[in-house]
Write a structure and sequence with these properties.
Shape of chain A: elongated
Number of helices of chain A: 6
CATH topology of the largest domain in chain A: Molybdenum Cofactor Biosythetic Enzyme, Chain A
CATH superfamily of the largest domain in chain A: MoaB/Mog-like domain
Number of strands of chain A: 23
Largest sheet of chain A: 6 strands, mixed
Radius of gyration of chain A: 31 Å
Oligomer: homodimer
CATH architecture of the largest domain in chain A: 3-Layer(aba) Sandwich
Distance between the termini of chain A: 32 Å
CATH class of the largest domain in chain A: Alpha Beta
Chain lengths: 402, 402
């Protein structure tokens, strides 16, 4: 009855509702997802411009220049950046020009300041010019071109580009809000003292980090004991939630209430478990059109279910066009001695050495453990029916980066 | 006179001032840097506990069990998660126990619910038990152990761990504030219309993204024309700035005022240029104990200087113990046809194929261009005096991930 991860993912990805779009100030756009194509309204550079500080000249004038017989031109104009040339260059003339400034008419090359001797308005040039040294109008962007596409995640280059194009308030997708509730009578808040049989609600904070890493907004609903009414109460009354995630009560025990919750809330169950470990227990369905997903209360299990199944869904909801992690092969640097009947995701730290990606499986791989996740930057995807994996074995690694 | 990047970096890293430390609520700690070692005050798990829903038994009682001759035990207790066992198990007895609950005294194994038949208080077991199925007290963490070290970046695993340990307000480093000012008479704000000779201030937004990606807090000072007084004014009066970054006016032209600014502000210059392209112009010094760095106004140049030189400095200032990017070898998927006299950083997109990391150099590599940075996830580090690089050449890649 357990579903392949890929099949479960396909089911959820099929019914994605994109978030709303809103224009927001550029200074708040870091890592947001662009919700429109951006078309250039003009060429960039908007004119032929100088890439350096120097003198604009006519190549033909300096073709006989040499160290012993420099060509001397007459400076007729001076164009600081931010200004425009006022004079056309004629034979024997040059214009002082700063980085980024517009090339004067008549000139077809720029010689850099360091290669020139200047004496009042006499400019001595000691060598011919064989390259123009000019940034051409439109060489970076052509008018009418789509410069940035809808779905682009806005980082340094894209933000600079939006600024260059004058997009002070680009249209971006709203960040999906993800409500996170931990269920379990054994749970207490992080600021409460432990008493016998109790443990603190760590899943809220662990999943908060995962949700933020996925570019979404976590809404922490805290913890609630194993009581159907209370669980429903906690989940009710929040606005504009894109996904509800619960932890706990998702496997087979009779204190496991999530199945009953789905019945009570009249949520048709899309699936109840995935064919993988950790992260097998996953109940998913639509509660009044919003995805409600019940994960295991075991931290490692909840984390892997989120990572493998829910993160791509949330990235796609966010409007991003790339929503899967990069996958690589990695070579085991330490053996992984647990044979796997099921497909198994193994916490690992990957590092390049001499161009080869090595993976070191973490010591702690238990379902109930958080320790295995520290220093992790990859999940190794070990196929079902695998034997012990020796040092040097090549495995598939999901890299926990964009 | 140009300094090796590595030498310049060493100069700056030598004199790092760590930020202040403050306790902040756990829900705000994502990606913050831990400013203290966290020591476990008790074992975790705090007691032997069950990893699943089932029955706690004595192994010896069930060693003769078989499908045809099941062993029948008497249920004497029921321990939901969050409760504690009230009875010791004697010969012939069993206790119903939920995931995470404490193992009752006397029991040394847990049999999962699915393998048991229950009829009122009679519990039938159909096979002997060969593994205990018990999570041992302290198997994840031992009392007194340092669980998380100062300098750890707080992500999912670490945040869950802090919650588990009851650290509701961990001590973290303040985020360095980085003031960013673009200089240049040609610059206008992002919301202003272009006029002849003018370009918009894109560097503020590009560097804002880089600063945020480095875990720091950008303070955008906008743009200012090439006027020493105005530049000083713009830089003055901000509190608790960890680094000032200016763009523009950092190379050799006589409109390049940053050198004069350093003199005016009485800042001894640590260095003025790095032996690399782009990103060569970098003037750095301490202005009343705060690092002031003048970068080129060319976007690609400013970005590479920041990435290669300033990001590691800011990460170390933030308290992070890992502050360098991962470096790998990558195989060129497209030729890079520009011979490099200088060491050159090349914008590239890297992708794994069959376990090999391939790098595709971007089409736009110009100093003055932003277009090359779109879709980039690596900088290729091409040594000085390199010829054209053919397809298949192995190069060094700095991966723009943590």
């Amino acid at each position: 009855m357990a579903l392949l991860l890929e099949d479960a993912l396909a089911i959820l990805l099929r019914k994605i509702q994109l978030q709303g779009k809103n224009p927001i100030p550029l200074e708040e756009c870091y890592q947001r997802v662009l919700a429109e194509d951006i078309v250039a309204e003009m060429d960039f550079p908007p004119f032929d411009r100088s890439p350096l500080d120097g003198y604009a000249v006519r190549m033909v004038d300096v073709q006989e220049a040499s160290f012993t017989q420099p060509v001397v031109l007459k400076q007729v104009d001076d164009v600081p950046a931010g200004s425009v040339p006022s004079k056309k260059i004629e034979a024997g003339q040059a214009t002082r020009i700063m980085t980024g400034a517009k090339i004067p008419e008549g000139a077809n090359a720029v010689i850099r300041l360091e290669d020139i001797e200047v004496n009042q308005d006499r400019v001595s040039i000691f060598a011919p010019v064989d390259i123009a040294n000019i940034c051409r109008q439109g060489e970076e962007i052509r008018k009418g071109e789509i410069v940035l596409r809808q779905g682009t995640v806005l980082r340094d280059g894209a933000l600079g580009m939006l600024a260059m194009l004058g997009q002070a308030k680009p249209l971006v997708y709203d960040q999906p809000k993800v409500a996170i509730l931990a269920t379990g009578t054994e749970l207490i808040g992080v600021d409460q003292p432990l008493s016998p049989g109790k443990i603190r609600n760590s899943n809220n904070y662990m999943l908060m980090a995962k949700v933020r890493e996925a570019g979404c907004q976590p809404i922490l609903l805290g913890q609630v004991c194993d009581d159907l009414e209370l669980i429903e109460q906690k989940l009710t009354g929040h606005k504009n939630i894109a996904m509800y995630i619960t932890t706990g009560g998702a496997s087979v025990g009779d204190y496991d209430l999530m199945e009953q919750l789905f019945v009570k809330l009249n949520i048709p169950m899309l699936f109840t478990r995935l064919a993988m470990k950790p992260g097998m227990p996953v109940m998913a369905g639509y509660w009044r059109d919003t995805l409600l997903v019940a994960l295991s209360g075991n931290p490692a299990s909840a984390n892997v279910s989120f990572e493998a199944l829910l993160r791509p869904v949330l990235r796609k909801m966010s409007g991003a066009t790339v929503f899967e992690r990069p996958i690589s092969r990695a070579t085991l640097k330490k053996a992984f001695t647990k044979p796997s009947l099921s497909r198994r995701f193994v916490w690992a730290h990957c590092e390049f050495e001499d161009g080869i990606l090595y993976a070191e499986p973490m010591r702690f791989q238990g379902n109930g453990m958080l320790a295995g996740m520290l220093q992790v930057n990859a999940l190794l995807d070990i196929p079902a029916d695998s034997d012990c994996l020796q040092i040097g074995t090549e495995v598939e690694a999901r890299l926990l980066v964009d």
